[in-house]
Prior knowledge:
Bound molecules: flavin-adenine dinucleotide
CATH topology of the largest domain: FAD/NAD(P)-binding domain
Strand content: 15-25%
Radius of gyration: 22 Å
Oligomer: single chain
Number of helices: 15
Amino acid sequence: MRCAIEANQHGDVLLVTKSAISESNTRYAQGGIAVAMNDDDRLDFHVEDTLQAGAGLCDEAAVRIMVEEGVSRVMELINWGAEFDKHGDQRLNFTQEGAHQKRRVVHRGDETGKETTDVLVNQLKCQDRIRVIESCFVVDLLTKDGVCHGVLATVDQVLHVIFAKATILSTGGLGQIYQCTSNPSIATGDGYAIAWRAGCQMVDMEFVQFHPTTLFLDGAPHFLISEAVRGEGGILINSRGEIFMAKYHELEELAPRDVVSRAILNEMELTGTPCVYLDITHLTQDFIKTRFPMIYQTCTHYGLNISTDLIPVRSGAHFMMGGIETNLDTETHLPGLFACGEAACTKVHGANRLASNSLLECLVFGARSARSAARYVRHLGASIRVSVQFEQPGTPAQSTKLTTEEAKEVIRELMWRHVGIIRNGNELAEVAQQLTDLDANPSWKTEFNDSVFECQNMLDVARLIVETAIQRTESRGAHYRTDFPDRDDLNWISHIRLTASD
Ligand SMILES: Cc1cc2nc3c(=O)[nH]c(=O)nc-3n(C[C@H](O)[C@H](O)[C@H](O)COP(=O)(O)OP(=O)(O)OC[C@H]3O[C@@H](n4cnc5c(N)ncnc54)[C@H](O)[C@@H]3O)c2cc1C
């Protein structure tokens, strides 16, 4: 949406979304937006913390752009009407999150994503050249002679060809390829798969961040319990009532996310229980209700009073650090195609994202993407029309019959069990084979419909993650292998890239 608003200054814009416009990862962001605007903070501190979290794989130039331009992007949001929490004297109230050396996260209670979405939707409505089509599923890119000319998309299961002088993918993340995730149902990794099939270079696909604390309660979704809850004093305890984070990291509850996620998994194994607990019962009910209204209400809805009860939590797939490789201007390797937001990999996050840096990345690189696409369009010659050919699905071979929903569940389970917080070479190799077999099993893809397209995307993306996880024979950031438990700076301060022709 930030990209479309900028693009409106340069030409006609068509914005398509697979569900309602407000249904996205952005909508569910809780903690806030990291920005170095507090009195005791500096841009350099924010850069430092981002590089530190990224474990040697951030591109410092990209990080500097995000941190420096981020200040204007956040000020702009405020000018457009975003009401972030303030102190009594009207100064912004910055919160603390894990691995930040300063309080630098602007937020609106625990509903920063909703506030940001609402402001951007309102701003979109003020633009005169943006047309929005909701419930429009992009299936693939239209390419000819190595150039992108638009997309193939469905509306009500009918295929449409949409030509565009420049195409920008900002299709968000892929949490839904894992059984346990904080991401909404739209986050099936479509953009990664679409770009990869069109020949784009993918990078850092092994780096999936797991959020340490998603709600683990019978009948409730894996609702995120924001890191800000630990930032405000929440304490993790195991089922024996023991506080444990000091054993794992000097920053205790505010250690990097991969450290906290692995610590939680270890405590679950040590105690033989399926979760640990987050304790905020020492905070006052008034503070909890004001600071975390959505978390309070959601937990209350499922019968949990978080001001008196412990919150059962476990880790869930949360954020993709890798993605479609772009340069600092968001250009992909395919002329005519640009990418921004979680779908893109500008390398600002490296091997592990610093909390609340992704909304900032979306705002900064969203705006940059539109400017870059506009420059590309200005230098274009006459538009080209491409013809579209469809491959009919083949006749099912002899193999186990699966529905599309069953195939999706197989992917989610394989990824969760073997390609999650802790990985090893043998299991990764087995999963690679099982995913290959699933791809070769045509029983779940005998029809052309959005669910089948989505499942194919999940499968393609899962295979990319497994392949890169096999290749990276070390542990770094969010990628942890028990057979290579150490970070290997001698051989592995490098990025793994994949293209469809590999
Ligand atoms: C629960 C939760 C809490 C979070 N909290 C924070 C936080 O506090 N701070 C922070 O910085 N980050 C947070 N994040 C991460 C952050 O929200 C996301 O990384 C970011 O919002 C991604 O934005 P995006 O624009 O790239 O994608 P999204 O906001 O997910 O938007 C993707 C869009 O692409 C569309 N789309 C996808 N596939 C298709 C297709 N095939 N066809 C057509 N349209 C398609 C979708 O409909 C959607 O409109 C959180 C994430 C979650 C899930």
